[in-house]
Amino acid sequence: MTARFEQLLHGLIGLDAESVGQVVIERAVRQRIAALACAGEDDYWLKLHSSAGEQQALVEAVVVPETWFFRYPESFVALARLARERGTQLGGARSLRILSLPCSTGEEPYSIAMALLDAGLPGDSFRIDAMDISEVNLQRAERALYGRNSFRGDDLSFRDRHFSESPEGFQLHTEVRRKVRLLAGNLLAPGLLAGEAPYDFVFCRNLLIYFDRPTQHRVAAVLQRLMRDDGALFIGPAEASLFSQAGMQALNIPLAFVFRRQTARPASTPAQAVPSVSARPRPAPVAAATASAPAPLRRTPAKVPAPAPATADSALDEIATLANAGRSAEARAACERYLAAHGPTAQAFYWLGLLSDVAGRSSEAQDYYRKTLYLAPTHAEALAHLSALLAARGDLAGARRLQQRAGRGVSRDER
């Protein structure tokens, strides 16, 4: 049933049908056939080809957003630091330009705005463009009214600062909303944003895993065109190898998955530590961020613990501190000491998975994530990272199963 519709969607939005599964496309087609009261598939096919509006409606039926505020929190920590550095270099000559695409229902671009405001950047020092192919998503982003599913994780203090609660949900404050310009657009459209100046920072995460290899390379070229020569690109963990092959280099910022052209001047030296992954940016000399999966779970103290921690909690805190400072070898050794002292523990295996992931040892990372899930089957962060690794290796069915498990949620006690 779906072959011709799969080909059409590939031409429209670059979708690789295997990445979402035939059942998703079949369901979307059936929904549209019922909505238009078509006599059958052939009747719908004719209407689909004669109506750009119906093509958009089919895209809307296939594209189901799954996002939340401060997803991948390390990237917002890194952005706050890099933005302060770039702002200092510019000396007020112009505003920072940031692009988020696809922006879905707005959680990512609004998280960017909140992170920068909380990091102390003046409101007029940056501007965010947010683009999505879905008109429905953009309408929801424009409304900026969110339910509880958009807020995940234990630290939701940003919600108290930037939202007002109402019977309908949580309304984002105007101060944040006005920093984001919402745009409709297709990343594969010729000349996308051709009239716009290049961007200092581009966020495009977990999109390329839905494309076949030729489309991935095409999109990678578009993203590089949209960036300044000294700009930075934030991607998903499963997309790192593609951009490395495209001549880009990862910055030495643990778990942020941020890339820059190899010829560009690094934003910072390797010795500079990234703020704790579990503290969200606030107006203070040192900004930080937190959010939900995938992210480290332990909260790290402001100071590095004593070299020989006496308790399990302080040992895990030491691991987090070392990892966030980029001291991967020491963090790995601390994990091994922890396992020797306390036996098999999900959180220690999870940290070893993250450290292997960042080092590019994907097979080793998968093994540690699986050990984590053996001990804690609903560990949301391990599910998310393992899913991304499986998708990168082409095991889309396995990735989808893990995503479904992660979507069922995880209690604080299970974490």
TrEMBL record:
Annotated spans, Disordered: 288-309
An MF annotation (GO) of this entry: S-adenosylmethionine-dependent methyltransferase activity
Domain CheR-type methyltransferase span(s) in chain numbering: 1-240
Keyword Nucleotide-binding: no
Pfam family for this entry, one: CheR
Keywords: Methyltransferase, S-adenosyl-L-methionine, TPR repeat, Transferase
Chain positions of TPR repeats: 346-379
Gene Ontology BP terms: methylation
Keyword Glycosyltransferase in annotation: no
Database matches in PANTHER family: CHEMOTAXIS PROTEIN METHYLTRANSFERASE
Name assigned to this protein: Chemotaxis protein methyltransferase WspC
